[in-house]
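FORM 12-B: Structure-to-Sequence Request
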């Protein structure tokens, strides 16, 4: 039988691992990129994948109903890809998103609508 104290100990252990691993929050919003270069609506349901430079870490998240996301990542450089059925695929390659560990970071993405 698992007692409440066991849950507390497990919670403390998990929090300690996250702190020791140096995970930091990256948050942002995915916007539509208008044909003329302007910024359009926020895009919900975008699947975003972060892959570390050496390929050892891959994390995927989906934007919420406001087109926003929040993910915890270790410091380092990440190639970012984003997909949505109504928009052209996005990739940051050959560039990277850099997670520095300097508090919360913002990383907005912009996607072009697919041609009809």
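FORM 12-B RESPONSE
SEQUENCE OUT:
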């Amino acid at each position: 039988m698992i007692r409440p104290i066991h849950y507390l100990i497990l919670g403390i252990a998990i929090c300690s691992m996250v702190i020791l691993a140096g995970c930091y929050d990256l948050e942002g919003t995915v916007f539509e990129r208008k044909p003329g270069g302007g910024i359009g609506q926020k895009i919900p349901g975008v699947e975003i994948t972060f892959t570390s430079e050496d390929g050892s870490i891959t994390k995927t998240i989906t934007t919420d109903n406001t087109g926003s996301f929040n993910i915890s990542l270790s410091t380092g450089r990440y190639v970012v890809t984003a997909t949505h059925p109504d928009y052209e695929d996005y990739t940051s390659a050959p560039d990277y998103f850099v997670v520095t560990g300097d508090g919360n970071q913002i990383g907005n993405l912009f996607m072009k609508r697919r041609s009809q």
